[in-house]
């Protein structure tokens, strides 16, 4: 009996659960001892894993982002809004295609298809309402442009050598267009806003009939030195970008004449019937500088 007690006293420290774990023996079943894998620092309980996933999700979401810290619709959106008055210059290029029938010298009729080519340097003034409303990152503006020609002439593409048929004339028009804008931030206090702008365009193109070319243009069959006007209108598409600060807006823009019609009071020699329009064309390059009102 004394020997048994002594044996138990000797083995008691090894029956401690910590001691059994150290020996790889499960304390609850010493007869079915199984090796215990030491917990890895990457091994987590089910509860801690769930908590860690929740914490990771919150970390990924982060705090609500201020638009001013984003590249799109951030600082530039804060700069935009209100009315902007602009002034600048425009290079206006138009072609008008005509068709008419004229009485021949001896008998019958002749058919003519003249093409007038206008080149004008114009003064441009505009008023714009920015940010009428927004849709996501997009701003919607409304702009009215007025232009007045200050120099330029008219040529006849149908005649040889593209002869000049006018050295000038009064030119004026307007464009009313909504703008679909995407404000972007360049740096603190400076924004860049690219846009596309479909619009309605009207232009009155005057020709003074002076300084006519000497090849065929000065023949009375075509142009006799009289003044005439042409009126065109239709749909234009503009693309460009606004460089914006707190006070100023600089806008380069390119416009294309895509569809329309026109009329004229031009009356060629021996005309029979009317001069018919076969559709105008145009390419306009504008540069304006604006001030916020």
Set down the secondary structure blueprint.
Elements: H1 2-11, H2 17-22, H3 46-61, H4 75-79, E1 82-103, E2 109-112, E3 115-135, E4 138-156, E5 164-166, E6 171-181, E7 184-187, E8 190-207, E9 228-244, E10 248-264, E11 271-292
Antiparallel strand pairs: 1-2, 1-3, 1-11, 3-4, 4-5, 4-6, 6-8, 7-8, 8-9, 9-10, 10-11
Percent strand equals over 45%
Q: What is the gyration radius calculated from CA atoms?
A: 41 Å
User: What sequence of helices (H) and strands (E) makes up the elements?
Assistant: HHHHEEEEEEEEEEE
| Secondary structural class | mainly beta
Largest sheet: 8 strands, antiparallel, barrel
The order of strands across the largest sheet is 1-3-4-6-8-9-10-11
> How far from one another are the termini?
109 Å
Unreliable stretches, pLDDT < 50, 5 or more residues? 3-12, 27-37, 66-71
| Proportion of residues in helical segments | 10-25%
**How many beta-strand elements?**
11
Summed over residues and divided by their number, the pLDDT gives a mean of: 79
Shape verdict: elongated
List the total number of helices: 4
Word description of this protein:
The chain has 293 residues and is mainly β. 13% of the residues lie in helices and 54% in strands. The chain has helices spanning 2-11, 17-22, 46-61, 75-79, and strands at residues 82-103, 109-112, 115-135, 138-156, 164-166, 171-181, 184-187, 190-207, 228-244, 248-264, 271-292. Strands 1-3-4-6-8-9-10-11 form an 8-stranded antiparallel barrel. The chain is elongated. Mean pLDDT is 79; it is low at 3-12, 27-37 and 66-71.
């Amino acid at each position: 009996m004394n020997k048994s007690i002594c044996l138990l006293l000797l083995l008691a420290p090894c029956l401690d659960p910590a001691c059994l774990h150290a020996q790889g023996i499960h304390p609850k079943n010493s007869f079915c001892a199984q090796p215990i894998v030491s917990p890895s620092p990457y091994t987590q309980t089910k509860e801690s894993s769930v908590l860690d996933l929740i914490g990771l999700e919150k970390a990924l979401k982060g705090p609500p982002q201020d638009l001013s810290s984003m590249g799109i619709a951030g600082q530039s959106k804060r700069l935009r809004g209100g009315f902007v008055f602009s002034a600048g210059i425009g290079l206006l290029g138009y072609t008008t295609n005509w068709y008419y029938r004229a009485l021949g010298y001896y008998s019958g009729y002749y058919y003519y298809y003249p093409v007038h080519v206008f080149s004008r340097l114009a003064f441009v003034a505009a008023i714009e309402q920015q940010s009428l409303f927004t849709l996501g990152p997009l701003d919607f503006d409304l702009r009215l442009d007025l232009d007045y020609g200050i120099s330029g002439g008219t040529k006849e593409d149908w005649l040889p050598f593209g002869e000049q048929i006018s050295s000038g004339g009064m030119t004026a028009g307007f464009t009313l267009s909504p703008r679909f804008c995407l404000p972007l931030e360049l740096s603190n206090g400076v924004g860049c806003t690219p846009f596309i702008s479909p619009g309605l365009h009207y232009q009155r193109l005057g020709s003074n009939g002076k300084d006519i070319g000497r090849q065929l243009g000065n023949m009375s069959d075509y142009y006799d030195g009289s003044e005439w006007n042409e009126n065109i209108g239709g749909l234009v598409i503009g693309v460009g970008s606004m460089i914006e600060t707190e006070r100023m807006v600089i806008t380069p823009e390119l416009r294309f004449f895509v569809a329309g019609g026109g009329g004229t009071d031009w009356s060629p020699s021996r005309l029979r019937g009317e001069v018919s329009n076969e559709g105008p064309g145009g390419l306009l390059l504008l540069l304006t500088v604006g001030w916020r009102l």
